[in-house]
Amino acid sequence: MTPANDPLAPLVSIVGAGPGAADLLTVRARHRLEQAHVVLYDNLVSAEVLALCAPGAELVYAGKKYGDQVDPRQRQQAINEALVAHARRGRRVVRLKAGDPFVFGRAAEEIRYLTEQQVPYEVVPGLTAGLAAASLVHIPITERNFSNAVLLCTAHTANYDFEQLDALANMLRTGTTLVMYMGLSNLAQVVAKLRAAAGPDTVYVSAVSQVSGPRQRLVTAPLAEIEAALAQAALPLPVVFVIGKYACSLDEVAAHLPSVS
Fold it and tell me: With respect to CATH, is domain 12-127 assigned 3.40.1010.10?
């Protein structure tokens, strides 16, 4: 473990902020925040995590959210250049990303740019929101004899062709659980295509809102009923979906899966 005051630590740290709760950060992530001169943070990083930054650290919003009109390529290039500029001034920089930097983030692009510019960096893993959601609401996504694998995906599934959706449906039927990010805005398209591909098999959806926060909420329903359930619940963003034959919390399994004990 590198001490927080180690002068040999890389100037740029790409850090996973976890799902939101500050006490779910790794020890190394907390150390890096405490020693940072500048922190470039994403949209879903919680205020609780940002409060751990060093006093006097420069906090720079570098996130994006649904509906933004900024060209994502221009935004990313500006972030890349800022990381290098701060590092070349001798400042310790944290690029703070919600969840884990390598799960549906753009850490790879930032690392390529840092490498091209010969700026040393490190990656500090974080607990990804999808896996945290399943654990926090007690959904055993890889329980022996029931769910044999888990697949992380995004709601861009709505743009997949039928062959790809059919492959996902086959995975659901054989016990794979899907953990889907960024799906609330186009859930109708995803549900319609998954229902068409999945056929008569019963598939459950658990939607977890504001994972690990004080207002975390869970809504569970069969695939055919999830849209109506979510319309009634009006869950606030962000929402993570756990989808599968056994995608139910152990706390309410009797209501949804009476045959499983």
Answer: yes
